[in-house]
Amino acid sequence: MGAYKIALLPGDGIGPEVMKEALKVLKAVEGALADLRFQCREYPIGARCYLEKGSDLPAETMKACKESDAILFGSAGLPDVKYADGTEIAPQLTLRFTLDLYAGIRPIKKYPGIRPVLAGDPPIDYVILRENTEGLYASRGGGVRVGNELAVDNMVITRKGTERIVQYAFRLAQKRKGASADGRKRVTCVDKANVLRSMAFFREVFDRVAASFPGIEAEHTYVDAMTLYMVQRPRWFDVVVMENMFGDILSDLAAGTIGGMGVAPSADVGDTYGLFQPSHGSAPDIAGKGIANPVAQILSAALMLDWLGEKKGDPAAQRGAQAIEAAIAEVLKDPRYHPPDLGGKAPTGAVGDAVAVKVAGAK
Ligand code: ATP
Question: Which candidate in 102, 111, 126, 137 is catalytic?
Fold first, then answer.
């Protein structure tokens, strides 16, 4: 098919370091698959950009995001750079709201070769679906603060917002092979319906949508219990869906169960646009040392190709995604390519090189 226009937003901290490796791998995909081409162009974003240009998301960057086929994002934000209200620079949140990227997709997959985190090293393979545009984070910038006495943020749950994320969850379950424990297709609603009215409403809408997918098992769990189950019986889960802040918190816990932030990719998609970024932040504690794990960024590029393939009806893009995932799975079996966060000594560039070599061999 044609060439895809990709807006590259490397951002802050380790963002540019891991983005460089994802680009190496995309080049290898082009080499391996003759009918797949990328026109990649970099744009400024993030905390450094805020200091230099007075904006964390300049108009030219937003325009490029809207005009591209997909957005590949690194990470943005640095602990010492803040907006006037004391919150951290987070243009990724602005992009989610502006481009209506309502579905936060976080595949939670444990690759063989990564040292076991949970007892018995269960084969973990499920997807967290996080509602990205409402929930508690809808209050961002709009909460109330009364001097030094009181501050309030609100949880926003709408019928439309809940319906579309829950429908996305069930459609995703239709495409997957089911839970690794029993092969059953299952969608789990994670909420706090026993305490909050907003969450009881979320569950009610979930149940109504679930009724239109009779072939898929639907269940509920409270968010506090879910943290326990994710550690005790992660194989039970297939697709799990929840509001924004719960999804933010649980995805970090989930990443911990599969080896850490360095191996956890994500996709933020809506009906028109798609943005792909590692689940981790800018990791200023390791930035500039050449030791960041690029796997999450590379897997995010694979999610991008899979999404493009489905959206544009392009099997070559989907083959590209599969080639990257297969290469990552192969490379991670070899501890020589494990960076320090996985207990090894491999520098960032060595991991990217190894994945690119495997991809180049794919046909
Ligand atoms: P944000 O709020 O922007 O998501 P955060 O404050 O949750 O960011 P991260 O930047 O994700 O924090 O980093 C959390 C921890 O994980 C840090 O110790 C960091 O070094 C580590 N980490 C994150 N990403 C990677 C990576 N790609 N490779 C190795 N370690 C990483």
Answer: 137
Is 224 annotated as catalytic? yes
Query: Any idea where the domains of the chain sit in the sequence?
Result: 1-101+269-363, 116-258
Query: In whole angstroms, how far apart are CA 200 and each of 162, 190, 212, 215, 243?
Result: 12, 11, 19, 24, 12
Residue 35 annotated as catalytic:
no
Are 1-101+269-363 and 116-258 equal in CATH topology?
A: yes
Full DSSP string of 62-77: HHHHHHSSEEEEEE--
Is residue 363 annotated as a catalytic residue, yes or no? no
116 CB-near residues (< 8 Å, 6+ apart): none
Give the pLDDT confidence of 327-362 residue by residue, as tens digits: 999 999 999 999 999 999 999 999 999 999 999 987
Length of the chain, in residues: 363
Residue in 261, 268, 285, 338 to alter for ligand 1 test, most ligand atoms within 8 A of Cβ: 261
Question: Using an 8 Å Cβ cutoff, are 111 and 125 in contact?
Answer: no
Provide the CATH topology of domain 1-101+269-363.
Isopropylmalate Dehydrogenase (3.40.718)
Q: Which helix (H) or strand (E) holds 161?
A: helix 159-175
Question: Of 15, 86, 79, 89, which is closest to residue 46 (Cα–Cα)?
Answer: 89
C-alpha 172/C-alpha 313 separation (Å) is: 17
Q: Pocket residues for ligand 1 (CB within 6 Å)?
A: 14, 18, 77, 261-262, 280-283, 285-286, 292-293, 296, 341
pLDDT in tens, 101-119: 999 999 999 999 999 999 9
Q: Quick one: tokens of 22?
A: 């994802």
Q: How far is CA 229 from CA 108, 221, 234, 250, 362, in A?
A: 14, 9, 6, 11, 38
As a whole number of angstroms, the distance between CA 283 and CA 316 comes to 34
Question: At 190, is the secondary structure helix, strand, or coil?
Answer: strand
Q: For residue 146, which phi and psi values (nearest 5 degrees)?
A: -110, 100
- Evaluate whether 278 touches 261 at the Cβ level (below 8 Å): yes
CATH 3.30.70.20 fits 116-258, yes or no: no
- Residue 307: half-sphere exposure toward Cβ, Cα within 13 Å: 26
How does pLDDT run across 234-259, given as a tens digit for each residue? Answer: 999 999 999 999 999 999 999 999 99
